[in-house]
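In the current project phase, work has continued on tokenised descriptions of protein folds. One protein thus recorded appears below exactly as we store it.

——
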Amino acid sequence: MLDQVLKYQAVFFGDMTDLSPTPAVVKQLIEAFEAKNLIPSTYYEIHKITGERRVRLRLSDAIGQWSFLVGSDRIDVHKTPVGPEKEGMGTLEAFCTEAANLLCCFLDAFPRTGNRLALVTEGMCEEMSEVRLAAVCAKLLNMPRFYQDNSPFEWDWRLAAHYTRDLVGRQEKLNVIAELRRRAGAIEGVNGAAPFDRIHLKLDVNSLSDNTAYRFDRQTVEPFLEVVRELIQDRTAEILEFIND
């Protein structure tokens, strides 16, 4: 189990170019999310090719833990830790339930289909001694002699594989991506900045980008998140067991 969760993220990919922050769209969005106590604002989206800045809509809760971003070609639902103790993230299962609820509220108000879905988690492993950190590095990476003799203080390990699962009676091919990174820095806490030197684990499960069929709708959001949640939980447990063995 991760010692500290840093991010949960669910993404719905589709065409949202018509949902620019006009008074009519903002009014409809506020009405759709009235029971969620989310506050509307805007953010700048940078076009991946032209670099053009576009003003897009964002909904956030009062403490900034939940964010719902309406991009031109994607909806991002984020939950991140807040406060000096970085707590309150809850379980991945609870996040997926609420993220599905938010996406369904949106799709009820603005009906459309998407061509991709994704679920991402990020967190920090428990603190380890320098000896254990070096042992994990040696287990994961086949290093040249210099780095065997001079243990790296920073490194990255990444794997990506395809996996096919049944989703609402349809075979869906998924990307299952795992990343481990050793990082050092400082986190602001109640007693000031606390240094850390830990292994970060990121899991990203998403439908293939080369399948451009618009096949994800209100009825498939919740089943998709349930399937990939189980995949992420299983891979997280598997990876943690592997590096701690």
